[in-house]
Specification:
226 residues; Helicase, Ruva Protein, domain 3; five-stranded parallel sheet; 9 helices; DnaA_dom; Hda; DnaA regulatory inactivator Hda
Length: 226
């Protein structure tokens, strides 16, 4: 995937691939998203269940003609017309559509894009949101029905054991060794929000490099002041 396929300097996190994505209770959702059997896949769930990670992994795996737009990050800096012409891509990934669909211009452009994708039948489109299509706050009611055309899948939170595995796999991708007891300590002491756990791991990575130390429980206590 070339940088030209990611507009506005959007960069994919280098460690968010399928190698670091633990399926847990979401194995079927991952299978459906990866199989590409549907023109439209709607993924929803609370923050931290892996929606963005899954889109990042799909984009990283794709060879060409892919576009990824994190709409919650871009909504204040780009015009809704950025959605025009996206049907020319083979894979379209729109993250956090619930951040924009309540606005008329974004709702109109998304509605039009969904229609073009269905009519042309040459693209695969995946979108994420924090709620199901029926619960979305939208400017155009028809957007809800369009988003229900394809497969709608809810992603669920990982178990504690899966979170430990996810931390270890992410640490390995970062070149770190994270023992299972140390990862368990992080889950138990830092809370069970995966976004916060990954952010803490990235902080520990920098501290480990600076101090030339391994990730041990005493070292983690000092760095994170816990």
């Amino acid at each position: 995937m070339t940088l030209q396929q990611l507009p506005l300097n959007v960069q994919l996190p280098r460690n968010e691939t399928f190698a670091t994505l633990v399926p847990g209770p979401n194995a079927e959702a991952l299978r459906l998203a990866r199989a590409g059997e549907q023109d439209l896949t709607y993924l929803w769930g609370r923050a931290g269940v892996g929606k963005s990670h899954l889109l990042h992994a799909l984009c990283s795996e794709a060879q060409n003609q892919v576009i990824y737009l994190p709409l919650n990050e871009l909504k204040d800096s780009v015009d809704a017309r950025i959605l025009r012409g996206l049907e020319s891509y083979a894979l379209i990934c729109l993250d956090d559509i619930d951040a924009v669909v309540a606005e008329q211009d974004w709702g109109f452009e998304l509605f039009a894009l969904l229609n073009r994708v269905r009519d042309q039948a040459t693209s695969r489109m995946l979108v994420t949101a924090s709620t199901s299509p029926g619960q979305l706050q939208v400017a155009y009611a028809d957007v809800r029905s369009r988003l229900s055309w394809g497969v709608v899948v809810q992603l669920h939170e990982l178990s504690d054991s899966d979170k430990i595995t996810a931390l270890q796999q992410r640490a390995h991708a970062m070149g770190l060794e994270l023992r299972s007891d140390t990862a368990q300590f992080m889950v138990q002491r830092l809370g069970r929000d995966m976004l916060e756990l990954i952010a803490s791991l990235e902080r520990l990575d920098k501290a480990s490099i600076a101090a030339q130390r391994k990730l041990t429980i005493p070292f983690i206590k000092v760095v994170l002041a816990i």
